[in-house]
Amino acid sequence: MIDKLYPDLQVASLMDIPLETLQARKIRALILDLDNTITEWNSNIVHNQVGEWFQAIKKAGFKACILSNNKEQRCLAVAKRLDIPFIYKARKPRRAAFYRAMEIMKVKPEETAVIGDQIFTDVLGGNRAGLFTILVTPLARKEFFGTKISRAMEKMVLYRLKRNQKRKARRF
């Protein structure tokens, strides 16, 4: 069960995701969290660098879909700006919305990556759905109160993940 909490890849931001590596893995679709992944928490502002990244992924042939536990209006504003589909009130980490996002983009699980800033929603949900998972560092410290509570538990998971990575590195 603990393995379901570990991302396949961990990066600082969207801009640090190695798109060539994803293409080599035959990944052609990205399911993205909204708050603290694409925008800061509770904000509709898409920073220029993020907007340019979305243009670059589209140019590289990737499809994208926002998957958020947020309300419709909040998701709509950002999805419209980025010209991508979205699913709101996703109830992550439940798998149903991940499958729905793949259906919208017409892709299979092995062709899809999930990108988000939370282990217990984005990574867990993506892993449960059999997807490649990418954990990004949250864009800002400001976030929903419930998320702050889960961050404490995430620290333990991340500590364990780093410890396991160091052990594996020593073996080689």
How would the blueprint of this fold be written?
Blueprint: E1 9-11, H1 19-24, E2 29-32, H2 48-59, E3 63-67, H3 72-82, E4 86-87, H4 96-105, E5 112-116, H5 119-128, E6 132-136, H6 145-171
Quick summary of this structure?
The chain has helices at 19-24, 48-59, 72-82, 96-105, 119-128, 145-171, and strands at residues 9-11, 29-32, 63-67, 86-87, 112-116, 132-136. Mean pLDDT is 88; it is low at 166-172.
Seen as an oligomer or otherwise, the chain set is: single chain
Low-confidence stretches: 166-172
Topology as a string of helices (H) and strands (E): EHEHEHEHEHEH
Alpha plus pi helix count: 6
How would you write the strand order of the largest sheet? 1-6-5-2-3-4
Q: Beta-sheet strand percentage?
A: 5-15%
Secondary structural class? alpha/beta
Describe this structure in words.
The protein is of the alpha/beta class. It has 6 helices and 6 strands; from the N terminus they run βαβαβαβαβαβα. It has helices spanning 19-24, 48-59, 72-82, 96-105, 119-128, 145-171, and strands at 9-11, 29-32, 63-67, 86-87, 112-116, 132-136. It has a 6-stranded parallel beta sheet, sandwiched between helices. Strand 3 (63-67), helix 3 (72-82) and strand 4 (86-87) form a beta-alpha-beta unit. The radius of gyration is 15 Å and the shape is globular. Mean pLDDT is 88; it is low at 166-172.
